[in-house]
Amino acid sequence: MIKFDIDRHKIKTLGAGAAAGLAAGILITFLGAYCVISEDRLAAAAKEEQLTQENEQLAEELKKERAVQENTETLAGDEDGWQLILVNEDHPLDSSYEPEKLTEISPGYEVDNRIVSDLRQMLDDGAAEGLSMYVTSAYRSYEQQTQTFNASMQNRLNQKMTPLEAYQETSMSVALPGTSEHATGLAVDIISTEYAALDDRQGDTEEQKWLMEHCWEYGFILRYPPEKSDITGIIYEPWHYRYVGKDAAKEITEQGITLEEYLGQ
Ligand SMILES: [Zn+2]
């Protein structure tokens, strides 16, 4: 009996072991199958995600391409629309774009001929008020913009920033080539003779105060106002003025909005 019991016990143990083994086997098989299924699902999801991303990227590129074409056509056209062209990171300008007629506003600085008289008037009226200011940047070609961008980035690299930091900081203050308004010939940087630095304090000079108050009368807007960087993608630039025409300049200034907001972008 004892032996039997032992045997039974053995059998029981064996049985339990076999059952456990079987259960474990099933579990492993099940888990294995589950893994295969979920791997398939994961792969499918990843593929779908990739396709979605690719589609979005493609749509984004197409949108940009269309914007580039539209921008080039708008600028080249003679209708009033040219003055409302939007150039930013999402609306680049074709790298080969060149204003049809450039006119020198001061030695070495040219702008689109269509804004010359208003710009001259603004500078002359400012001077008549006893202010002293000058244009420090006007039309910049794609190549010049590339050089400006690279120089600014190099400057930051020299300050021991990592390439990524340097790139991020630079792109907040210097437009990527193709996305700069200076390539349109419709934008100018004007600074005070008293204070030459391109920083926030430029905005405190009498010259900038006057320009900010009166530029709309000449068809210009302060293009990158403070607290609008999230919309424009560019930091506060109290020296960068953009020609948009007198009607738009008045409305944009009165409403305290950006060109992006004005155009519903
Ligand atoms: Zn500028």
TrEMBL record:
Name used for this protein in its record: M15 family metallopeptidase
Listed GO biological process terms: proteolysis
Organism superkingdom: Bacteria
Xref: PANTHER family: D-ALANYL-D-ALANINE CARBOXYPEPTIDASE, PEPTIDOGLYCAN L-ALANYL-D-GLUTAMATE ENDOPEPTIDASE CWLK
Transmembrane segments: 12-34
Any GO molecular function: peptidase activity
Keyword check for Glycoprotein: no
Any coiled-coil regions, as ranges: 41-75
InterPro entries, A to Z: DD-CPase-like, VanY-like_core_dom, VanY/YodJ_core_dom, Zn_M74/Hedgehog-like
Record-annotated D-alanyl-D-alanine carboxypeptidase-like core domain positions: 110-246
Gene3D superfamilies with a match to the protein in the record: 3.30.1380.10
UniProt keywords, alphabetically: Coiled coil, Membrane, Transmembrane, Transmembrane helix
Organism in which the protein naturally occurs: Mediterraneibacter catenae
Pfam families registered for this protein in UniProt: VanY
